[in-house]
Specification:
Layout lengths: L6 E2 L11 E3 L7 H13 L6 E8 L5 E7 H15 L5 E4 L6 H13 L4 E2 L11 H8 L7 E5 L1 H9 L3 H9 L2 E4 L6 H9 L4 E7 L4 E5 L2 E2 L3 E6 L7 E7 L5 E2 L3 H7 E3 L5 E12 L2 E7 L3 E4 L2 E4 H9 L4 E11 L3 E10 L8 H12 L7 E5 L12 H17 L1
Parallel strand pairs: 2-3, 5-6, 5-7, 7-8, 8-9, 21-22
Antiparallel strand pairs: 1-15, 3-4, 4-14, 9-10, 10-11, 12-13, 13-16, 15-16, 16-17, 18-19, 20-21
Amino acid sequence: MDFSTLTPTPAPRAVPSTAVVVGENLPADADAMYDAFTRAFAADTLDEPALVVTTSGSTGKPKQTVLTAGALQASAQATADATSSQGAQWMLALPLHYVAGAQVVARSAFAGVRPVITRSITRHTPFTPEDFLAAAQRMHPGARMLSLVPAQLHTLLDSHNEQVLSELQSFTALLLGGAPASACLLKQCKDLNVNVVTTYGSAETAGGCVYNSRPLTGVRIHIQEPDEHGTGRVWLGGDTLASGYLNDAEKTSASFFQDTHDNRWYRTDDRGSLTNGVLTIEGRADDVLITGGIKVSARKITERLEEHAAIREAIVAGIPHPKWGQMVAAMVTLTPGASAPQIQEFTDFVASALGKPAAPKVIKVCERFPVASTGKPDRRAIHQMLAQAAAAKDQL
């Protein structure tokens, strides 16, 4: 693709009153959303905005991502095709203000079957095995679908409840996204015969558009300026793309483009490689940490930590430091039943594979990660906790 010929996309200026608008501080009703999406899919044109997803940007200014009925329908059709789940009933276990939660309702409307709703879609009610079981037992026989974030799946598997496992095994597919899933979690699901499908995407792509590292039907992937290892910035294209950010010309023109063949593209913040149609995400474009003048990859450090038998999940961050520039820090949760070794063992484990500069100077062990209202790890809170731990260490 010739990036010099791309034309920035203009921002959407307005949305019809019929569009569903979701956000963390906005009221949402799954039944009303289902009805709205059903009407949108039956309309004479699919070019009208049908969903606006409001998210807080890194600068604190909210982004309102606009998705047309056509984008939602293309996503729903591609998901059904990829998972052989045409006409399936979905369980809604994700918050409605999160694109993955809204998409469960949209896919349900496309299938013509209302979803079964867990109590935990509100922020005040935690997701529990009991909540999952109660919802699963209300579902129709036949094809059934479920979308979760890794923390929710851990909650179900950690219950060691045979009935929970039996219900998980009965789903046609379990879409897992929102945060990277550890290799240990994926292996556990495979061993237990739970059909997990990892997803990659964002609100800008109508949720997941790459399943198990392969693009859905109609989705295009391009790697910009790959290095000697084939790794570069990931661009995504296809019919599932959002129209842009509502009334935000600057952000829209920096992220959404059209090529000379009228193909639309979204410039992600991720780096990855594409080999024989398989996309490997290496991390965010800002994933590289520079500590003591040496570049290290936060993603590779995370993956190495999660290879340790005692660690279930890890999140790595760079903490500003007057001497090192950035200090490598990590928060980890432990594998249930595993004995907690000395922190130095984790540090040595990373250093043995990636070199001493990559070894975290601070490692904070917790029972579970703090989570945002979407159920995903709250990286801002985690960064603050690691910064506090680093400051306390410097004062010793």
